[in-house]
Amino acid sequence: MVVRFSGDSGDGMQLAGNIFSTVSATVGNSISTFPDYPADIRAPQGSLTGVSGFQVHIGASQVYTPGDLCDVLVAMNAAALKTQYKFAKPTACIIIDTDCFQKSDLEKAAFQTDDPIEEMGIKNDVIAAPISQMVKDCLADSGMDNKSMLKCRNMFALGLVCWLFNRNLTITENFLREKFAKKPAIAEANIKVIHAGYDYGHNTHSS
Q1: Cβ density class 65-95: b for 16+ within 10 Å, e for less
Q2: What digits encode the pLDDT tens for the residues 61-116?
Q3: CA distances from 132 to 13, 156, 166, 197 (A)
């Protein structure tokens, strides 16, 4: 299976992809990864040239390439969907954060209508969730400001992908506690959001 995480260059797609790769390798999968950096390093937020991606190919037997087309596409904003959909299989599941598909987001991504799914002719299964708002709700009592809370959006998407692939979250928790050892509050916030994403998949039976 091939999973492609994509979003703004500041959305933490590389981190989400790295953690999912680590989790998959730990449970015995063979993996091959491909980080895809934005065309413009300092591109405006939400722009087509600022999209960052990370693709991981996981398999029960040896895999030798990051894969061509993905089975799961995470598109954290409108620009990511616009530029990355070409990498999705016709049968791929697509995860989007509907909070980042507002009028201004669609304009930045050069959409002509307010329905990007229909405009692009997407027939895939789409898990359309208000991820940003759910992350804010999840961390409402954390004392974090909005900007800091939204930096955890990638972890919600990661939790949802972990649910899709039936991954144990203990490995992700250990990874984050080690990575943010000097910032335990950040580690715990990210872990809380991963569980929220996982639970969202479980409770809505997203597939």
Answers
A1: ebbeebbbbbbbbbbbbbbbbebbeeebbbb
A2: 777 777 789 999 999 999 999 999 999 999 999 999 999 999 999 999 999 999 99
A3: 15, 9, 23, 11
In angstroms, the CA 6 to CA 109 distance is 14
Question: Considering Cα of 39, then 40, then 41, then 45, what sign does the dihedral take?
Answer: negative
Beta-carbon count within 10 A of 8 CB: 22
205: alpha, beta or left? (left if phi > 0; alpha if psi -120 to 50)? left
The residue assigned the tokens 């039936």 is 166
| CA–CA separation, 162 and 160 (whole Å) | 5
CA proximity to 15, closest of 131, 178, 164, 145: 178
